């Protein structure tokens, strides 16, 4: 076990845990944002640089600070490590810079994007970014590509987190999915526009943090915040699929089916394409009850639960948030002891 | 002229063949190492020599070798980084094409020291003709019993392979190189784990530059202590400098580290001064990624001392008034050079070569290039100059690999030392965008 101090909060985690996962054990507002890291996918992380933190003491044995900011999602903890996230101005400044970099080639077409409301980039930019841009040049654009009949790739929105590449690599067969090109011309591609043709291909939609990979059976059907998520399950015949999903209702209609995600947007159990694309009748499912939306995004409107924050730790909260916090104080501070 | 350790026989007719190379004392280090030394003694000699990595970072080679993890029953690898593609650097190409056996000799001795049974030379894809030269030389070395099973009856066996890249600059970054060598897309890996623990095929690996490996040969022949006598302080031995730009005699020079920069530029022994009797404006001392310095600061340090061609002297003053020896790509620019255009040119290169894996570099390199393009073509504003500095700062230190820094440093340094030229482009766009235009006013030293 290793004991680390994260933003002044002590937490004990098993050896080999990453700084990000240690912070997630604390929970709440101190958790660094993660755009590319995805726990179930081996090798993910380190790319978006959103989760950079300052290690002000490397370990109890060697308390020297690390010279550069480190990516918390891939750096493992050492006993006695001291990490600064929201209390370090350099980290906050760099994060602002990362938002700016991620947005300069992003079309910001949220009003017509299916991902809006449950988009990691939207949340990230809202929390850490600035409201203007210094980028005057033309943005990079790509043509939309249909990857088979069910999935559409809108590369212009992509932030190249590589999650879908790892998904295609690790949970589906016959990989035809990867990254082509280099630099800001790099794109997610299926060579010569092959289709991803296997039973689990739909999961690339769930792992996409932005609206680059969308469900063609749900495109433009509804804004996600107008739909009601309901957990459900069925006896799926596919051996690798447990059939536990979230159904998204509008009135009596099931508009889409997704895997269940935790508060960090990570899928816990992959689902097969039959469950996702073909079973859109209530009769196909055994309903369990409303799904709980943990993430503090637009999607949680009307039953909005404030993020668990520690006002002592986060100094420069926007005024609107402070006001809101005063009106509705969070139930638990710092997220310690439940 | 100082001593030449690597290129002494480079002009001998037929030195690229095994016979001639052997006649001029070639492969002595292999005989000496395999017959009279243990691998640890070889590492110890390299440590004593004070040899520092010649690829750019200048990390002590002996120390790098001693960091190599040595778990039982697991193969280890020595990989030679011959993916030389930094603008302004062309020393390895010269060394490999003229003296292929020197590299092979260094590879054998180095592999013996590290206990590697298979070693690789990863060569830049564009250097196909050099690849052929190396392959021919390797075949000769196999035939002469210096490669393969049981070399010289010592019981040590080594296989050496040459592998061409596909022409990506990023594959010169050691972990991207290993990915590429494994047959994958050349994306740099997250570190740690470092290659010394998990490198090629997740095995302990040392990656060294061509010149570093070649320098092992004279170190073993003459002893580490002898080698350390050359040079100044912690910059020991000799270094190949590929001098280019507006010089009377551009070319590749093997210098003893410690030659004053002024002597290197102006003496007839080396570059012979600036061409056409013009004045020197600026120098990029170690390949395009190191900070550019104006004449005043490259010849003398901020404290007024003579600047020497050593790792320490060139980096004197940090990045405020100093630069780096880097890979030895020495680019001199005369007074007719437009610094803005030059910076844009460098920036275009890094934009094109960014792998696109991590966001600050992928987006930032393109942004820098576009802003510089705007400034160079007379459409910029004063605000753009500060924007450049700000974007460079957002990239620097926040990326997976050093390419981000390599793209940010030259831009930041150009603005730091030549801000007046950028401002001139903004205030006099018509004049500045005329063909061949360059700012001729006097520099304002910060």
Automatic annotation (TrEMBL), chain A:
Renumbered residue ranges of the record's region Disordered: 319-338
InterPro entries, sorted: 2Fe-2S_ferredoxin-like_sf, 2Fe-2S_ferredoxin-type, NADH_UbQ_OxRdtase_ferredoxin, NADH_UbQ_OxRdtase_Gsu_4Fe4S-bd, Prok_molybdopt-oxidoreductase
Compartments in which it is found: Membrane
Keyword Transcription among record annotations: no
Main localization (coarse): membrane
Keywords linked to the UniProt accession: 2Fe-2S, 4Fe-4S, Iron, Iron-sulfur, Membrane, Metal-binding, NAD, Translocase
Cofactor list: [4Fe-4S] cluster; [2Fe-2S] cluster
Domain 4Fe-4S His(Cys)3-ligated-type, residue spans: 90-129
Cited Gene3D superfamilies: 3.10.20.740, 3.30.70.20
Transmembrane segments: none
Coiled-coil segments on the chain, per record: none
A matching Pfam family: NADH-G_4Fe-4S_3
GO CC annotations, alphabetized: membrane
Domain 2Fe-2S ferredoxin-type: from-to ranges: 2-89
Protein name (Swiss-Prot/TrEMBL): (2Fe-2S)-binding protein
UniProt organism field: Hymenobacter properus
From TrEMBL, chain B:
Keywords: 4Fe-4S, Flavoprotein, FMN, Iron, Iron-sulfur, Metal-binding, NAD, Oxidoreductase, Quinone, Translocase
Keyword Membrane: no
Enzyme class: translocase
Stored Pfam families: Complex1_51K (PF01512), NADH_4Fe-4S (PF10589)
Domain NADH-ubiquinone oxidoreductase 51kDa subunit iron-sulphur binding residue range list: 340-385
Catalytic activity from the UniProt record: a quinone + NADH + 5 H(+)(in) = a quinol + NAD(+) + 4 H(+)(out)
EC number, as in UniProt: 7.1.1.-
Keyword Disulfide bond set for record: no
GO molecular function: 4 iron, 4 sulfur cluster binding; FMN binding; metal ion binding; NAD binding; NADH dehydrogenase (ubiquinone) activity; NADH dehydrogenase activity; quinone binding
GO biological process, one term: cellular respiration
NCBIfam families, A to Z: nuoF_fam, PRK13596.1
Function: NDH-1 shuttles electrons from NADH, via FMN and iron-sulfur (Fe-S) centers, to quinones in the respiratory chain.
Family as reported in the entry's similarity comment: Belongs to the complex I 51 kDa subunit family.
Protein name according to UniProt: NADH-quinone oxidoreductase subunit F
Taxonomic source organism: Hymenobacter properus
């Amino acid at each position: 076990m290793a004991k680390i101090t994260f933003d002044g909060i002590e937490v004990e985690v098993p050896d080999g845990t990453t700084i990000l996962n240690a912070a997630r054990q604390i929970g709440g507002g101190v958790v660094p944002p993660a755009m590319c890291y995805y726990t179930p996918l081996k090798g993910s992380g380190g790319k978006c640089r959103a989760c950079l933190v300052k290690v002000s003491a490397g370990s109890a044995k060697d308390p020297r600070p690390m010279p550069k900011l480190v990516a918390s999602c891939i750096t493992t903890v050492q006993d006695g490590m001291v990490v600064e996230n929201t209390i370090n101005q350099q980290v906050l400044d760099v994060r602002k810079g990362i938002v700016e970099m991620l947005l300069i080639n992003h079309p910001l077409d949220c009003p017509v994007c299916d991902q809006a409301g449950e988009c990691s980039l939207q949340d990230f930019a809202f929390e850490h970014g600035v409201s203007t841009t210094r980028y005057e040049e033309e943005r990079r654009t790509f043509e939309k590509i249909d990857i088979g009949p069910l999935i559409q790739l809108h590369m212009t929105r992509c932030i190249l987190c590589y999650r879908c590449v790892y998904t295609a690599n690790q949970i589906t067969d016959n990989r035809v999915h990867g990254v082509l090109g280099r630099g800001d011309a790099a794109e997610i591609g299926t060579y010569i526009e092959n289709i991803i043709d296997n039973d689990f291909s739909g999961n690339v939609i769930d792992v996409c943090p932005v609206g680059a990979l969308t469900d063609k059976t749900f495109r433009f059907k509804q804004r996600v915040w107008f739909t009601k998520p309901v957990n459900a399950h069925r006896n799926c015949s596919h051996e690798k699929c447990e059939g536990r999903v979230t159904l998204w209702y509008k009135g009596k209609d099931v508009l889409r089916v997704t895997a269940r995600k935790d508060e960090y947007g990570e899928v816990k159990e992959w689902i097969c394409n039959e469950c996702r694309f073909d079973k859109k009748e209530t009769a196909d499912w055994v309903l369990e009850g409303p799904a709980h939306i943990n993430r503090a995004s637009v999607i949680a409107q009307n039953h909005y639960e404030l993020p668990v924050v520690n006002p002592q730790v986060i100094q420069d909260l926007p005024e609107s948030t402070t006001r809101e916090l005063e009106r509705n104080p969070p139930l638990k501070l710092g997220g310690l002891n439940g | 002229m100082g001593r030449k350790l690597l290129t002494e026989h480079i002009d001998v007719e037929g030195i690229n063949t095994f016979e001639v190379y052997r006649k001029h004392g070639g492969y002595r280090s292999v005989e000496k190492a395999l017959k009279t030394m243990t691998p640890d003694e070889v590492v110890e000699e390299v440590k004593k020599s004070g040899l520092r990595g010649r690829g750019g970072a200048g990390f002590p080679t002996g120390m790098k070798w001693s960091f190599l993890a040595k778990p039982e029953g697991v193969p280890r690898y020595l990989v030679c980084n011959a993916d030389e593609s930094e603008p302004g650097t062309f020393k390895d190409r010269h060394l490999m094409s003229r003296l292929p056996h020197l590299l092979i000799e260094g590879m054998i001795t180095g592999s013996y020291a590290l206990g590697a049974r298979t070693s690789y030379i990863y060569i830049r894809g564009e250097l196909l003709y050099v690849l052929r030269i190396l392959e021919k030389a390797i075949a000769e070395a196999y035939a002469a019993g210096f490669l393969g099973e049981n070399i010289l009856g010592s019981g040590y066996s080594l296989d050496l392979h040459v592998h061409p890249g596909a022409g990506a600059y990023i594959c010169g970054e050691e972990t991207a190189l290993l990915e590429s060598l494994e047959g994958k897309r050349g994306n740099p890996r997250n570190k740690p784990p470092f290659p010394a623990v998990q490198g090629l095929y997740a095995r302990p690996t040392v990656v060294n530059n061509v010149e570093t490996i070649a320098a092992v040969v004279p170190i073993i022949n003459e002893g580490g202590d002898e080698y350390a006598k050359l040079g100044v302080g912690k910059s020991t031995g000799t270094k190949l400098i590929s001098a280019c730009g507006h010089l009377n005699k551009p070319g590749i020079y093997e210098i003893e580290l410690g030659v004053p920069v002024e002597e290197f530029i102006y003496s007839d022994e080396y570059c012979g001064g600036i061409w056409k009797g013009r004045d020197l404006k600026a120098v990029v001392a170690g390949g395009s990624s190191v900070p550019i310095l104006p004449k005043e600061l490259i010849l003398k340090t901020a404290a007024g001392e003579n600047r020497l061609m050593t790792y320490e002297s060139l980096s004197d003053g940090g990045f405020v008034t100093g630069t780096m020896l880097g890979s030895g790509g020495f680019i001199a620019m005369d007074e007719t050079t437009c610094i803005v255009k030059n910076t844009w040119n460098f920036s275009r290169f890094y934009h094109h070569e960014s792998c696109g894996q991590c966001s600050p570099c992928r987006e930032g390199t393109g942004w820098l290039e576009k802003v510089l393009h705007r400034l160079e073509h007379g459409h910029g504003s004063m605000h753009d100059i500060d924007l450049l500095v700000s974007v460079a700062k957002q990239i620097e230190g926040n990326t997976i690999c050093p390419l981000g820094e390599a793209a940010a440093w030259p831009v930041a340094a150009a603005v730091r030392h030549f801000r007046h030229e950028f401002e001139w482009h903004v205030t006099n766009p018509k004049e500045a965008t005329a063909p061949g235009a360059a700012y001729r006013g006097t520099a304002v030293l910060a």
